[in-house]
């Protein structure tokens, strides 16, 4: 019997070695770019620069990617719909390594319709699209999206509002409208169960606007500070983190969450951002001054200690989130003034592996920046006015088959 087990173990080792020999390492990155005016999404191979797909939608879109990178969502506020695209890039975790599968991107067939979709939030593999014109959240799983079905559930709030919803396990976090002044921002967060029944009291959050996740913490931005959401016993636990007395008057209305490092980055005035660590006993807020007004900012998921900020003078800045200081700056575009309408075409930023990609809508190009040297690394021409952008991809093993 021992001989049999030894022979079997040897055979398994031999097969494992053969599989390793057949495995090739592959890296794939794609960027999805929406046009500022045209109802079009363009997919581009970020490694070769070649266009790999064009997808007609119903209106100009804001783009979101899923945490897994398998799905991209086009939220079309003026057209009243959310359209799902399969990125074509998927990973399979094998413990000691990961496999990568690469196919052509395609529309999945999933669409979620409603009045004025705006905030779109993923948590735990579920996506919640909030429809401002109805005060309704429609929630769908990534599995359903990739299967091409519109199998969503609805959770209603008390009135139409510029609101937000987050699917949180068997609960949903819902913004509460300002009933006395319906045109103003929500006043707090309610927790409801799967049937929509409220659990506990309203968590006050005046002028609620902006949310993000980092690690196991979810936050909402309020005029008074942040609501911090963590796992509790039987229901989410929500606490209030007030802005520090050392901060000037102001508030955050846009938040992003770090990946790899747990932190949050928010706007705070036109020419400042604030780094936030909700777990810190002291100095939870660190203010960072910028050389001029801020246009856009995003976190680096590959190099966790960095975030990137684009300012109206045409510069891209590399922010070291550990020191709280700007490490590098690079002039990329002509100036994009923040005067004018909030939705005017201005650059957006995404990270595709070792490249930082910046849209330049007024000249129709994507600027590539080498993330290691922080120097220009080329351009990709895109028809129209390339505006919103997301990147998906990574590296993994592929296996030849006989």
UniProtKB/TrEMBL annotation:
Residues 1-23 form the signal peptide. Transmembrane segments: none annotated. This is Zinc transport system substrate-binding protein. The keyword Signal applies. It comes from Mesorhizobium tianshanense. It comes from the Bacteria. SUPFAM superfamilies: YVTN repeat-like/Quinoprotein amine dehydrogenase (SSF50969). InterPro entries: AztD-like, Quino_amine_DH_bsu, WD40/YVTN_repeat-like_dom_sf. Keywords: Signal. The lineage of its organism: Bacteria, Pseudomonadati, Pseudomonadota, Alphaproteobacteria, Hyphomicrobiales. The keyword Signal applies.
């Amino acid at each position: 019997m021992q001989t049999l087990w030894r022979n079997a173990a040897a055979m398994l080792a031999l097969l494992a070695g053969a599989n390793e020999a057949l495995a090739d390492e592959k890296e794939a990155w794609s960027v999805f770019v929406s046009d500022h005016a045209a109802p079009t999404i363009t997919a581009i191979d970020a490694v070769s620069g070649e266009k790999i797909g064009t997808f007609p939608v119903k209106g100009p879109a804001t783009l979101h990617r899923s945490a897994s990178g398998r799905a991209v969502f086009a939220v079309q506020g003026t057209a009243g719909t959310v359209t799902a695209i399969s990125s074509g890039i998927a990973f399979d975790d094998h413990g000691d390594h990961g496999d990568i599968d690469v196919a052509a991107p395609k529309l999945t067939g999933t669409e979620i319709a409603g009045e004025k979709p705006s905030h779109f939030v993923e948590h735990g593999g579920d996506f919640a699209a909030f429809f401002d014109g109805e005060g309704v959240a429609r929630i769908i799983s990534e599995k359903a999206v990739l299967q091409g079905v519109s199998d969503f559930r609805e959770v209603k709030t008390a009135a139409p509002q510029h609101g937000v919803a987050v699917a949180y396990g068997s609960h949903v976090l819902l913004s509460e409208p300002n009933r006395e002044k319906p045109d103003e921002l929500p006043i707090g967060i309610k927790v409801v169960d799967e049937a929509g029944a409220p659990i506990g009291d309203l968590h006050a959050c005046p002028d609620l606007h902006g949310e993000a996740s980092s690690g196991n913490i979810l936050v909402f931005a309020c005029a008074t500070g942040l609501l911090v959401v963590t796992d509790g016993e039987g229901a989410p636990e929500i606490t209030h983190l007030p802005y520090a007395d050392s901060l000037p008057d102001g508030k955050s209305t846009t938040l992003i969450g770090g990946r790899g490092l747990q932190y949050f980055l928010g706007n705070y005035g036109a020419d400042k951002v604030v780094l936030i660590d909700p777990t810190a006993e002291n100095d939870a807020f660190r203010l960072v001054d910028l050389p001029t007004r801020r246009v856009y900012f995003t976190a680096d998921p590959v190099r966790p200690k960095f975030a990137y900020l684009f300012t109206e003078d045409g510069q891209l800045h590399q922010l070291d989130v550990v020191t709280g200081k700007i490490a590098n700056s690079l002039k990329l575009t002509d100036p994009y003034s923040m005067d004018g309408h909030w939705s005017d075409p201005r650059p957006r930023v995404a990270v595709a592996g070792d490249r930082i990609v910046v849209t330049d809508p007024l000249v129709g190009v994507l600027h590539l920046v080498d993330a290691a040297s922080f120097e220009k690394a080329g351009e990709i021409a895109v028809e129209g006015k390339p505006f919103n952008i997301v990147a998906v991809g990574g590296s993994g093993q592929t296996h030849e088959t006989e």
